[in-house]
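User: Hi! I'm working on a homework problem where we have to compare a predicted structure to a textbook description. Could you give me the structure for the chain below?
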Amino acid sequence: MLLRQVLAFIVIGLLALSGIGPAAAQTWPTRPVTMVVPFPPGGGTDVLGRIVAQKMSEILHQQVIVENVGGAGGMIGSARVAHATPDGYQFVLGSRADAINQTLYKKPAYNLLEDLVPIVLIADQPTILITPNEFPANTLPEFIDHVKKNQATLKVASAGAGSTGMIDCQLLNAAIGVNVTHVPYRGGGPAAIGLVAGEVSAMFGGGSLVPTVQSGKVRGLASTGTVRNPATPDLPTIAELYPGYEALIWHGLFVPAGTPQPIIERLRSAIAEVLVEPEFKKRLADSGSGEPYIVTPDEFTARIRGDYEKYGKLIRSIGVKVD
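Assistant: Happy to help. Predicted structure tokens:
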């Protein structure tokens, strides 16, 4: 009995010192919170993050500050949150890149399955294969034929080494049996600018590029889902030519391991309110991210583990590693 009392006093003392005891969790948040977007401004993750942050600020009655912490295919920003104080005042808008980085990098800066706790899945979207309007191919079959004949001179862009765009390029290379040179940029926005300028021949882009495709500034050829994207219904899926091909980008919120459960539930509740708002759903659709993807925490965790295994296997098979 005495031992239990001593342990109880120790736990209470630690909670009091950390400021994240039960009372603190119930009143959270009492000041602005930070959503880390682990990519530079202008890309799909950034666009989605700002939509979410605006609505969360209204629901939490505290400002949700978006802070772009780019680098290493999203790993630097996610690592910052993984090692942050687990008090709910920093969380990260994670993505499929987090699952990819665990195998892609020789020494990942954090353990996705241990250092971060998944809160909620927000969106699940296909990417789009795009080219400059001057590219000599108007359809996916024409594109594949041209690439097979000219792979030695072509270049494809991505948001950086280890980015989802790079992995999508590798998936397409494997599907059609080519090896096109990869050019990493510092984010999806700069990559798109390079494509429009003619520096590269193609790239895979997320929802932020849907308006660019719709405006005719670039040519969309295909999407990477198993069904056509409602935002670009005229674009075929790569799976229509290569059954089984799928490369979806999920986005969800993560907090550091050790964050008190009441704070996790408050965050989860706030996002649940965001996801059902008609205005949010419209903005999500307009950005190319489709419908909010509502799943249970266990289903989200299973999705993360599934991508961890899927892309780990792909990366090991093609022998790609980043220092």
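For your comparison, note the following. The beta strands are 33-37, 64-68, 90-95, 116-126, 128-131, 155-158, 181-184, 202-205, 219-223, 248-256. The CA atoms of residues 102 and 111 lie 7 Å apart. Good luck with the assignment!
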